[in-house]
Amino acid sequence: MMKINIVKPSFPDILKIQDKFDACLRSGLVTNNSINVREFESHLGAFLKMQDQPLAFCNGEMALYSLIQAWKRKLGYSFHDSFKVLVPSFTFSGTVNAIVANNLFPVFCDIDESLTINLSKIQTLDENIKMIVPVGVYGNLVDIQKVNDFAEENNLITIFDNAPAFGSKYKGNFSSFYPINEIFSFHATKVFSTMEGGMAHSPETSITEDLIISREFGQYEKTRGDISLPGLNTKMQEINAIIGNENLKDFNLILENRMKIANQYNDFFQTIEKNGNLKRMKINDNVECTYLYYPIILNEEASNFVQHMNSQGIAVRRYYTAVHTLKYYMNKYDSFNLDLTNFIKDKIVSLPIHSDMSQEEINYLFKTIQHYFNN
Ligand SMILES: *Cc1c(COP(=O)(O)O)cnc(C)c1O
């Protein structure tokens, strides 16, 4: 029996990073925006062809938390003030936690067949809603133009939680090429990883300046450590940047290979979809998706399928989830009609898809799935 893990992070050989890490330890400069983090930010900017300045963070959730907080300040709210934020329920809990930790109220929204936010189901907007946080689940970026138009019409700030979408493209460019407020996660489970890590960027210079200060306790000057805002320490460490710099070197090749594997998955699952056994995620218009996991929506509750896959050595994940049904969030906040979210939440399963998957592994996974539906 073959064994296929849910994710398979690719990290550089220790020999490739050992000199840099050693120099870092010897110098004592292991954090505080030292040379490797600065280099990483500059490499990210070049790789992603960014016009905004990329800012490294300790993880994706804190990048999102900090970006939301910076916009809240810019809109003139103090921490103790509040407003409402549109967010899909179908996401990772971290998205909503970052909103709530800013003393803001989530308003849960439904999704469409793309599994991303369904704008057409958001009808009359309460005047207390000031922000929208669309999520690029599984790397499926939302249509940036459509969201921007919607936000402009309704006077909302848009912050894209593209934590799982590093490497995905919109109209032929990485999403961060565009002047948007956006974050990524570089967690070990993501397609591009620094072990733990994240980044944020904004087209607003004042937001960028705010973020630079806020990730270092809010210190605007270092002599006395005076602060201009109550920032949390959310800096990236040097070791993460060293790994990021190394991983970024051949990331284009990794992406290319990953897209080929994703195409094989698409061909295979299209056939099963035609037979009526499952539904696939519809990729949004103008998007090339890197597929963080390959989600399928079964016709039934997923337990039997999960058991079948596990019994054959293939790990699968019940992911993403309907956050409004999680213990902490249950019945606490406003929501629009969440029909599709509720309909799919127990039927959706994420299959592993690795950037360096062998043909043998791919065939084994397909065969195991075929077997489930033929019985
Ligand atoms: C992974 C993920 C996060 C969390 O990122 P971390 O780097 O682990 O903090 C947040 N939101 C979404 C949608 C994610 O997929």
Name the descriptors.
375 residues, binds pyridoxal-5'-phosphate, alpha/beta, 4-stranded mixed β-sheet, Aspartate Aminotransferase, domain 1, Aspartate Aminotransferase, domain 2, 37% helix
Strands, helices and their partners?
Elements: H1 14-27, H2 35-47, E1 55-57, H3 60-74, E2 84-88, E3 90-91, H4 93-100, E4 105-109, E5 129-132, H5 144-154, E6 157-158, E7 160-161, E8 169-170, E9 173-174, E10 182-185, E11 198-201, H6 205-214, H7 238-249, H8 251-274, E12 278-280, E13 287-288, E14 294-298, H9 303-311, E15 321-322, H10 339-344, E16 348-351, H11 359-374
Parallel strand pairs: 2-4, 2-5, 5-6, 7-10
Antiparallel strand pairs: 1-11, 3-15, 8-9, 8-13, 10-11, 12-14, 14-16
What report would you give on this structure?
The structure is a single chain. The protein is 37% helix and 14% strand. The chain has 2 domains: 14-249, 3-Layer(aba) Sandwich (Aspartate Aminotransferase, domain 2), CATH 3.40.640.10; 251-374, Aspartate Aminotransferase, domain 1 (Alpha-Beta Complex), CATH 3.90.1150.10. The longest helix is centred in the last third of the chain and has 24 residues, at 251-274. Helix 1 runs antiparallel to helix 7, helix 2 runs parallel beside helix 7 and helix 3 (60-74) runs parallel beside helix 4 (93-100). It has helices at 14-27, 35-47, 60-74, 93-100, 144-154, 205-214, 238-249, 251-274, 303-311, 339-344, 359-374; strands at residues 55-57, 84-88, 90-91, 105-109, 129-132, 157-158, 160-161, 169-170, 173-174, 182-185, 198-201, 278-280, 287-288, 294-298, 321-322, 348-351. It is α/β, with parallel strands linked by helices and 375 residues long. The mean pLDDT is 97. The strands form 5 sheets. Strands 1-11-10-7 form a 4-stranded mixed beta sheet. Pyridoxal-5'-phosphate is lined by residues 59-61, 91-92, 94-95, 135, 161, 163-164, 185, 187, 198.
